[in-house]
Every structure is written in structure tokens, then in C-alpha cells.
Amino acid sequence: MPADRLVAEMVPPPRFDSVRFENYHPDPGQPSQAEAVRVLSGFAAGLGDEGTARRRRWFKREAPAPAGPSGIYLDGGYGVGKTHLLASLWHATPAPAERKAFGTFVELTNLVGALGFQQAVTALSGHRLLCIDEFELDDPGDTVLVSTLLGKLADAGVRLAATSNTLPGKLGEGRFAAADFMREIQGLSARFRSLRIDGEDYRHRGLPAAPPPFTDEQVTERAHATPGASLDDFGALLGHLARVHPSRYGALCEGVDAVFLRQVAPVADQATALRLVVLADRLYDREVPVMASGVPFDAIFSEEMLNGGYRKKYFRAISRLTALARDAA
């Protein structure tokens, strides 16, 4: 996949094509949600054509407007609508699409890997806004790499917005994720305003439990009767993912309308589990339902993994795969 396509595809995924601030429905019991809409709407309104504004001030001899935060950080648990709000910010920013970029933290690190650091800086420094979804705080190397990249972009005038997750076990303990974020991005912290968004996971709010797995025969029969379906044995799919760079998982999903998996089993090693997380994100972005046999999705990661350094990713993948399994059912 050519490098210029990687940059051009940094837009909100299909699931978030139509989201806007207007169709985000704040929970009346969680005032932080409505406050986030208000702050982000104002942030977007301030991201017009800065060059025109500078010229207007020069001709009128006006003093420049006071500098506000160049970044917004959305801190909250799973399923409170952070990605909806981040994509809404992208849509509401009055700049052409080629001057706005939207991607996950993993996609951004993949971009740097594909282009090289300096070329990535060059490719993004002309943007008005960069939105980073699911900022990962569990890999020091990648975090320092992206922090350095963001520093270069912020110095070039790019405005930044990011989301991350508070672990379910940490909800109610104050600004856990925000504190981690500000510490990890080091010198960038002063550029960000942190917004806490409280609430329950909308993917599971008031809904029945995840459907039980189907049989191999049911999965096979439904796959052959479904247009645009893929049908794989789980082990064979994991083997294939090991031979495809994660930056291409989005392209791997193109033209697939439903995924059918046989013999889903617990994942044995960390590298395989992390590849599965990326695939789950790409399927969720594209609203591709997943019908499976074997163990339920909340049993594919071991307790050791769920308590380890990458636990944020695994909890997110379980939440999203469960939602896709419910769609398939």
C-alpha cells in the first residue's frame, strides 16, 4: 500500500461518517458529557483559516488573540462516546479534508514506521488538525516517539486532539488516565486541556449479555448464505495476520460485509493478541458483524493479559468484539 494512501486515509472510519455534535446525546445524569460538547464546539470554531485571520489582524493593526490550548484530551471510560466526539470535532473543523487527519494511536505509529519520522512530520505539518483516537499509554517507546512527533507538529501550528481510556477498575479514582497522559507526553502537557467524560459503556448499557457462540455448522451455513462474507478458521486467520503489516488491516477488511469465524480459542501469546486487537478495531470502525463458534470473545485473552501492560487494548477489543457479535446475532 503506497505511503500517500496511508496519509490520505487518515479520516474518520465509516462508522463515524455521519456523527456530529448535534447527534451526540449527552446523558442527563452525566453533565460532563454536555460540557465536552460545548468545549469541543468552541475549539472547532477556533480552527478556521488562521492565515486569513493573520492577514486581517495585520491590515487592521489588531493584536493577536490570546493563545489558548493547542490540544484537547478526552479522558473517560469505555463507550462514553469519546470517538464520536473526536470525529465530530474533525467534521466541525472549518478546513478542507486534506488539511485534517484522524487516526488511532496505532495507525499513527504505523504511519511513522511506513514513512520514517521526518517524512511523517513533513506529511502532517501542513494540517490544521490531527485527531488521535485511543492514545496508548502502555508502550514507552511508542509513546515517546509519538510525543516527539506531536511536539514537532504543534510547533508547526497543527492543533491536536486525543482520547484514551480509564480502566474499568480505575473509574471513580479521579483523573487516572489524564495524569498518565500528561506525564507520558512530557513537554507537551502544557499544550493540552483535559476534559473528563463520565458515563457507562453505551455498547452494553441496557442490552442483554453477549450471545453464546454458535456451532461450526451454523457458522459455515450462515457464511455461505451471506453475500460479501468471509469464512475462516480462527487459527488460520491469526496465522495470516502474522504475515500482514497491521497498517494494512483496514485494506484487508475492504469488501467484507460480515466475518464468520470457526473454533475461536484463547490466544496464546502477546504478539498474536495485539494483532487481533488491531483487527477488532478495524472491523468495529467498519461496522462489520462477527459470527463465531468456539469460546466467547470475553474468554480469548488470559487473566495474565488482562492484568498486564496492554490491558487497555484487550478490554477495548472485548467490548468491541462483543458488540459486533451482538450485531451478527
Compact summary:
By secondary structure, this protein is an alpha/beta fold.
CATH superfamily of the largest domain: P-loop containing nucleotide triphosphate hydrolases
Overall outline = globular
Biggest sheet overview: 5 strands, parallel
The CATH class of the largest domain, by name, is: Alpha Beta
CATH topology of the largest domain: Rossmann fold
Q: What is the ordering of alpha helices and beta strands?
A: HHHEHEHHEHEHEHEHHEHEHH
Distance between the termini: 34 Å
Would you count the extended β strands for me? Answer: 8
For the residues shown, what is the average pLDDT?
A: 83
The helix content is 40-55%
Architecture of the largest domain in CATH? 3-Layer(aba) Sandwich
Report the β-strand fraction as a percent range.
5-15%
* Uncertain stretches: 51-67, 167-176
Radius of gyration: 20 Å
